[in-house]
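Bumping with the actual sequence this time:
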Amino acid sequence: MPPLTAIERFFERLFERPSARLFRARVQPIQLQRRIERAMEAERLTTSDRTLAPNRFVVHLNPADLAEFGDMTGSLASELADGALSFARAHRYTVVDRPRVDLLADPTVERTDIRVDARFAEAVAGRGGHGPVALSPEHEAAVDDVDPTLTRVYTVPRPRTPRAVLRVTDPDGKIREVVVEGDLTIGRATDNDLVAVDGRVSRHHGRISGRRGTLVYADLGSTNGSRVNDVAVTEVVLGVGDRLEVGDTSIIVEVAGGASD
């Protein structure tokens, strides 16, 4: 844990938790969201060309605090996952998969306290031939080694592949619409789903695919690279309004939603 994060957590324990117990304050959803965001910041990995953020979060709460959310617990986990995705997008972090949040009843956590463990859902390949990044043992055990007799785990359902509409502007100014309902490849070659009329676009330039309810663009090792909102990318989650540039071709995400199987 970085030194500043450790200091921050010390003061949280010193001031927030005792005052909450004194006034019997309930744990609020916004507190959970802020702790998830802090965990994402603390565990992010910076490479030469991007910042990778964890996408699996386990929120440990005292059983009594978790019980106070009642029937809204399942929807709360989903909303927290959406909030984590929005936070990652706002900070231009790369997530290897759609964030997932598990709310876990942990009797070792004191009332009104919150503990968040963050990890990557799958091994993250290191850049420049350095191999995979090792995960800490406590992160590996965050979910898998929990005693099921002492906990209740709520899992966000896996969303279906989203449907999206793209507005494509060719180098000559011609505009066309392309609908994404599954994987969509981009390139000059005629076997692509979106054939680019652009000499600066590689034969097989990039791919847009659905990943747990999000649209993810991945560059396929193109010669001239790819940019999203004027930032060079190799892989990134796309949202409505994002502008993808391949060569001199502009692709804007106009609609994203209405998931398909």
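The tokens above came from a reply further down the thread. The mean pLDDT is 76.
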